[in-house]
Amino acid sequence: MANQSDYLSNMQFILKSTTGDNIRFNCYTEDAPVTSAAFMSILPFARTFFHARISGQEIWIDNAPELDIIQENASVFTQPGEVVISPISPSRNKIAKCMGIFYGEGKLVDGGNIFGKVVEEDFELLQTLGDRIWRSGAEVLTFESGVE
Length: 148
Prior knowledge:
The chain is α+β, with helices and mostly antiparallel strands and 148 residues long. Helices cover 20% and strands 40% of the residues.
């Protein structure tokens, strides 16, 4: 039987687009173990993602599943391919109840928990998805566990 550290080191989820693309992400289990475990526990779920207006090359939602977690690995600075979710506390946070996925350059308007990154081989699929949402509008995306 796998131990807890084996489980944490293999946390992966899949984003499924309406065009049938499956985009894989690895969780930051060392830098954001609480956020990673909490996110994995709410899978699967689907939401309608929009393109950000001010934070750069980001697709996002403002109705993310609420995670009652600590702030960890929180920053406004992200790297292309990273995934961010905001804990429900502190409620003064400008991105409370939000989740974002950066497909290029960008910067958050307030600190969020950066907890994962796209698998390098799937980065181009993520860029295509972000460009499509930017050009064509909102899209329903589904998140599922990527580890059996």
